[in-house]
Amino acid sequence: MDRYGMQNQIACIRRSLFDQGYLDEQFIQLEELQDDANPNFVQEIVTLFYTDSTRLIQNIELTLTSRPTNFSKLDDYMHQFKGSSSSIGAKKVTSECAVFRQYCAAGNAEACIRSFQHIKQEHAILRKKLEFYFQMMGQAAVAQTT
Amino acid sequence: MNVSSVKGSMSISSSTSTWKAGDTISDQFPAGLRVLVVDDDPTCLMILEKMLIACLYKVTKCNRAETALSKLRENKNGYDIVLSDVHMPDMDGFKLLEHIGLEMDLPVIMMSADDGKQVVMKGVTHGACDYLIKPVRIEALKNIWQHVVRKRKNEWKEFEQSGSVEEGDRQPKQSDDADYSSSANEGNWKGSKKRKDEEEETDERDDTSTLKKPRVVWSVELHQQFVAAVNQLGIDKAVPKKILELMNVPGLTRENVASHLQKYRLYLRRLSGVSQHQSNLSTIISAQDPTFGSLSSLSGLDLQTLAATGQLPAQSLARLQAAGLGRATAISGIPITLVDQRNIFSFENPKLRFGEGQQQHMTNKQQVNLLHGIPSTMEPKQLVSLRHAAQSIGNMNMQVPPHGAQSSQNNPLLMQMGQQQQQQQQQQQSRGQILVDSTINHAPRLSSSMGQPILSNGIATNVSSRNGIPENIRAPGYSQTPSMLNFPMNHASELPGNSFALGSTPGVSILTSKGAFQEDVNSEIKGSGGLMPSYDVFNDLNQHKPQSWELQNVGMAFDTSQHSNSLQGNLDLTQSALGQQGFSSGQMNGHNRSAAVASKAMFSTGDVKELGSAQNVNQHLNNLLVDNTIRVKSERVCDTSPANIFPDHFGQDDLMSALLKQQESVASSENEFDFDGYSMNNIPV
């Protein structure tokens, strides 16, 4: 694919991520921070997020499965998770976290578990999409240099 | 930074000191602003760091609160602002906020994904200067430098406004402390003032103030040290660095001292700015402490004494001193000094005083009113005589307390004063004297006069509580607050219900003279315990509440609310002194208490013979307070008509009114002085 074609494709991917609600404007903030000094800033951040959030997810899962359900701990973790995901602009993940917290505040363990499944799903979906996106960008960059 | 005022330079210097050479404030600011960002989330931390760098700030990041604290501690002047997350595993963000405020007094911005009102409110009350909701946008970070500037600016401004603002704050909204404005102000009393505003504290201000006060707490003792150091160096030559060295208090920074000094200077300036009363005061003061203006000496003495005894909140003392210092240097030993001081203070609180013009006259009356409690028969002329007596006593008192040596001398001084007065006047004076003292000493002598006024207050309160005489005193609409001598103060204007502002205004009762003073003081000191005067008295009278009083005073010093507190402090004292003679004033938030104590004190200290019972005293007090028309109906209180003691001690009136006003405002119109249950608990410490 030619350079422009690739760039177009990347632009389309990017736009769809926003249009479909996977990303919000916080992601744009990250993009704006990227410059020549940090050409891969966005990717670095996203990678960092996924590393950290995986750990968080594991903690949450452990807490969810233990009985009695420690809602305050769950809330804590989720608060953290939400903060993290919102800072990279992961829109769907963040809103699902909010739902979880509501159930958690209500003490509804079942609903929390279900909600958490959604969170994990969204989390995974976004990851794939972003990985693809970055991959394309990487290819485009390579294409540009060639 | 626009620190241009007197001590503006101080603040500037302190602020500039924090801004290292690298940070060229003028050209590049806010570039180079040294930011410390703390967040346990690595993603957020990295994003923030990048954003801050994009804003051209100099960023240091930590992922743990402990690390951040140690970084701050090892390099106190190395940072200009701190950004901290609320939820952190090792330490709560608010706790970190408090630590920073206390130790380094830097502006702190909290961040959280939580945008719940409670959490944001918590940030406010803990002193955060801003609260950002995550995800944080770079736009929000671009302006954080404003907090640094504002903080520095406010430190200076607070000092300046401490008196007037307090008054204003106190009056309009009792609950408004207006003390603490910026979150991390150095020196509690000034800073707290502004913050208090935010906090909306009433008499219970103390509660709120205790909520968040990371900054340096200028306790009475600390303030005493500060004042002693300043005196030693000379008010003109006192620079924070030297003061700090002299004080030799571990953990105290130059910035703390600088901001406190600013406040103190404002206070002094304010004192000098007061009207003629000041001159009176100053004369008296000068007798004592030539170093400062006459006023200052007085205040210094009293203040110190008061402060020493802990009765006078350090800030109040400083304030008074400052006032004294600032005030008329020409005060010639007029006994009115106290009154003047009162006036001075009340001066600052225009509301408090009724009209300065008439204060003189009024003060007499008012004072009388105040003293009413004591000698129930205080008639206007009595008041006048009281005033005189008070003045003279004030003089005496003033001289007595050696500058700075007061700490434990407050009581004795007060007693002395009372005694002196009695000797001098031999009228029912014991009471009157006390009252007088209080009024006179009110301003400068918090310590000595406190004892006195407190008595009167106490009496007043007693009266109210007990007898019901309050009606006499209660000036228009003032129903009970006999204890609040302040009553008279507010008399003209405030009487309605205020007159006994006692009831409403904490601490009004007791020291009507004091009260006034206190109010003034409070306003001066930012509400730091207008009770200062009573502070001494109470101490003397009944030691058991000195702490509470102190506490109150301390608290009060810090914010306008303190005004009420001080009153309460007085109340406490009086209470104890009075042995709780039905000091219902307690209700006033402790104001009454002081009144009660005062009355009690009166009994104990003064040979309030007539008093026979606190009731009488109270009655008298009430009478006094009631309306300036001293209708001391209480026949009981026969002789010692404090009124006599206070000759035209308008200062007292002013003070009283000021105090009353304060009380009123402070007490948030708790005019119900029904001092039934003098509950010391009210003392918002």
UniProtKB/TrEMBL annotation, chain A:
The keyword Thylakoid does not apply. The modification Phosphohistidine is found at H79. PROSITE patterns: HPT. Residues 38-133 form the HPt domain. GO terms for cellular component: cytosol; nucleus. It comes from the Eukaryota. InterPro entries: AHP1-5/YPD1 (IPR045871), HPT_dom_sf (IPR036641), Sig_transdc_His_kin_Hpt_dom (IPR008207). One of its GO terms (biological process) is cytokinin-activated signaling pathway. GO terms for molecular function: histidine phosphotransfer kinase activity; protein histidine kinase binding. Keywords: Cytokinin signaling pathway, Phosphoprotein, Two-component regulatory system. It is found in: Cytoplasm, Cytosol; Nucleus. SUPFAM superfamilies: Histidine-containing phosphotransfer domain, HPT domain. Histidine-containing phosphotransfer domain (HPt) contains an active histidine that mediates the phosphotransfer. Functions as a two-component phosphorelay mediators between cytokinin sensor histidine kinases and response regulators (B-type ARRs). Plays an important role in propagating cytokinin signal transduction. This is Histidine-containing phosphotransfer protein.
UniProtKB/TrEMBL annotation, chain B:
Signal peptide: none annotated. One of its GO terms (cellular component) is nucleus. It is found in: Nucleus. Residues 212-269 form the HTH myb-type domain. One of its GO terms (biological process) is phosphorelay signal transduction system. GO terms for molecular function: DNA binding; DNA-binding transcription factor activity. Residues 445-467 have a biased composition (Polar residues). Keywords: Activator, Cytokinin signaling pathway, DNA-binding, Nucleus, Phosphoprotein, Transcription, Transcription regulation, Two-component regulatory system. Pfam families: Myb_DNA-binding, Response_reg. Its main location: nucleus. The modification 4-aspartylphosphate is found at D85. Transcriptional activator that binds specific DNA sequence. Belongs to the ARR family. Type-B subfamily. This is Two-component response regulator. It comes from Gossypium mustelinum (Cotton).
